[in-house]
């Protein structure tokens, strides 16, 4: 990066930590943060429709340095409760940025809040962007704190939780049917729970399936009670078969998948014929294992020319090595470099962009709108990607419109 500056493009996307907390049913979010941070999360909450569930307590520097954080927080919580039309079952308190370094006594704060409001469950969610790249990410920490609220004392059942992914699986995904044939239910996602009580019962599942790294820390925290398997979404047919083998081993049962393999291979063949030799650029924001996605596209015969963004996930390293060795012509473009501010729209001219980030820097009209493996797993992931690629060349649209329709959050 140039001079230590970091460029976060308007197209990078993601779910946003506020939106993650809003998935907890019957909860309210209270942010302790500087006004600039509040502006950021407030705008996203308004655009995405959960503004009424978010409040802000802004503290000045002198209040933090004078040790006034705790008392201000207690008063702030009471003020929020007086204004809410319905008393929440849980309040998630976000310590952000400079508040993270205030030295506030987290244990003491929770004890006092619970003493004052015995009918409400409180949790502190620490969000420290300063540690990005060194240890758990803010998203991993938030997921860990959220799932720290589930009840792990319930009776274990043959049900699978989906942990860490921003969305539940799409209705077309084969995984629920596969689990059912194996005598299991699920996968359950937090967004499908309509009450705080039903959310807490996720602690009685027999397995946590982690398909995105954001949920790994939470799953590790729960692992003394609930075993977990980490299977980051793959678009490679061979890897998907291996992942199902690991899943079957974890649940102690298996079933035949040949119908899904055959159907997916047909979709790959149809899409390759439609796309032909058109060039493809891939955004690292499109998948948690973007180099694995690039490798899969190359193996299927697609003409990948560039990768936009950085990705250094250990589980994706082998795929990156394979791509660089087998397709050395592919350009890797660091979109976080501050100089990229002057390069928007002039970074090549691919025919198709997978994900919004590549489209933003190239102004490509044909976009496969894949973001963070949203809603996919297994063979369905490949099917959905193929359909996105085919549809992108038939229905090009304005990039800004597409980004607004999706609801990207920085």
Helix/strand order, N-terminal first? HEHEHHEHEHEHEHEHEHHEHEHEEHEHH
Report the principal-axis shape. globular
CATH topology type of the largest domain: Rossmann fold
Distance from first to last alpha carbon: 19 Å
> What's the CATH architecture name of the largest domain?
3-Layer(aba) Sandwich
Q: What does the main sheet amount to?
A: 5 strands, parallel
Strand percent estimate: 5-15%
Share in helix: 25-40%
Overall tally of domains: 3
> Which consecutive residue ranges, at least 5 long each, have pLDDT under 50?
none
CATH class value of the largest domain: Alpha Beta
| Rg, alpha carbons | 22 Å
Per DSSP, the total helix count is 16
Structural class: alpha/beta
What is the β-strand count? Answer: 13
Q: Strand order, biggest sheet?
A: 11-10-9-12-13
Question: Could you report the average pLDDT, rounded to the nearest whole number?
Answer: 88
Describe the structure.
The chain has 410 residues and is an alpha/beta fold. The protein has three domains: 138 residues, 3-Layer(aba) Sandwich (Rossmann fold), CATH 3.40.50; 93 residues, Nitrogenase molybdenum iron protein domain (Rossmann fold, 3-Layer(aba) Sandwich); 149 residues, Rossmann fold, CATH 3.40.50. The protein has 16 helices and 13 strands. The strands form three sheets. The protein has a five-stranded parallel sheet, sandwiched between helices. Strands 2-1-3-4 form a four-stranded parallel sheet, sandwiched between helices. The longest helix is centred in the middle third of the chain and has 18 residues. It is globular. The model has no long low-confidence stretch (mean pLDDT 88).
